[in-house]
TrEMBL record:
Main localization category: nucleus
Region (Disordered): 102-134, 458-483
GO CC terms, sorted: nucleus
Biased composition (Basic and acidic residues): 102-112, 472-483
Pfam annotation, one family: CAF1C_H4-bd
Domain named Histone-binding protein RBBP4-like N-terminal: residues: 31-99
Compositional bias (Acidic residues): 113-125, 459-471
Name by which UniProt lists this protein: Histone-binding protein RBBP4 N-terminal domain-containing protein
Amino acid sequence: MTASTMADTALNSAAINEVSDVLKDKLIDAEYKIWKKNTPYLYDVVMTHALEWPSLTCEWLPTVKSAGPKTNEHSLLIGTHTAGDEQNYLMVASCNLPKDDVVIDNRTQKDDGGDDEEAEQEGENSEPKATAATSEAKAAAAYNEEKGEVGGFGHASSNIGKIEIRMKVKHQGEVNRARHMPQNHFFVATRGPGAELYVFDLSKHPSFPAEDSVFSPQVVCCGHTLEGYAMEWSRLTKGHLLSGSEDTNVCLFDINSNGSNEKAGRQVKPLSTFKGHTKVVEDVDWHCKDPHMCASVSDDRTIRIWDTRDPTKAMHVVESKHEGDINSIAFNPVNEFLFATGSADSTVALWDLRNLEKRTQTLSGHTDQVYMVNWAPHDESVLASCSADRRVGLWDLSRIGAEQSPEDAEDGPPELLFLHGGHTANVSDFSWNAKDPWTIASVSDDNVLQVWHPAEEIYAGEEEEYDSTGEGEDKMLGDDDLE
């Protein structure tokens, strides 16, 4: 092949890729418009907040306080992933949600012509007490086409749906992951682009740092040689922090252990280092009842179950049969034998500790790699997963094997309860709100934070699966669809 031919081939390939990207963007935009049109029927709460920078992480904090007769103020941990030399931050955001006994009268909350930018950031919501008998007229009245709101969140007199940054702590590099200690939510551990883990005591930091302040974690966990995302606090042993890294190792830290006091914080070494994986350790988790049992998953496609009392070898090494890297693992918070894994092969697998020879179930519904899996804190049979396909899937394991009509089967398996389709880019993380069941926060690569709660009739015993993406729909749902 001549140099001229090679150049022509490269140009043609670039042109094809450019056309492909344009078509993909148009498809994403069309799907988003359909989703937005159908939000009055599919959600009790939807808020969309535009962040200044993308957040790779989000987690609800366990704090709730009254913000008025109709609202409670909840708190979220998020971070930044800035560009260039811009300063990165660990942040706490407040989010006002309707109280359980509040019903918003959408028919009285009209567009008041308020600030469009504020309205766009304050988001979308439908009636918290919607029922299957809700009329199309009422749902349509709840929806503001121009602002893309449901439930009057943009109304100037209402603080429902308001999301504000309440605290910023300087961070060294982007925040890959942030998680609070279950026993003391002021203690927050983070992962960045370096090998270390950082622990901040938020009670020792101002709400907003001074311009000349410096990065100042209270504890620096040193044991890895490369960066990573994997990190999880023990729910049973206060101060125990598990981590995994690109160096293929798993480390266990006790932040209460003695360490050297340095300018950048007290440095602690691992209590134990677990070796065995041959590729990047993507995620770790602790068992719900055994304080000594933990697990790790890796790009080597194995699951390793460890006993912290013997770090020299894994209790179990499971060849997962996933056809891609394993990105996530989560033990069920109630059922001591059940755990789930999420993989780059676009599937979620369920496992039983009593028989690790093969998975008990494969959940198929995503079309791209699964980044994260997490169990609902209020229902042991419900699991959520987020993916590079821009979706967050909700799964109800009690529906596995349920009968379906051929039409329903086209939308997915019976256990696929709901697909949240409000994001237009990869969903990097999500979090269940333990203080407000069925409320989820999710973040995506396009600077968007969404807080949402599926309509009650979707999870309250209805047999039909709901796909909030609107795929297969080209119009608003009719009266027959709501019966």
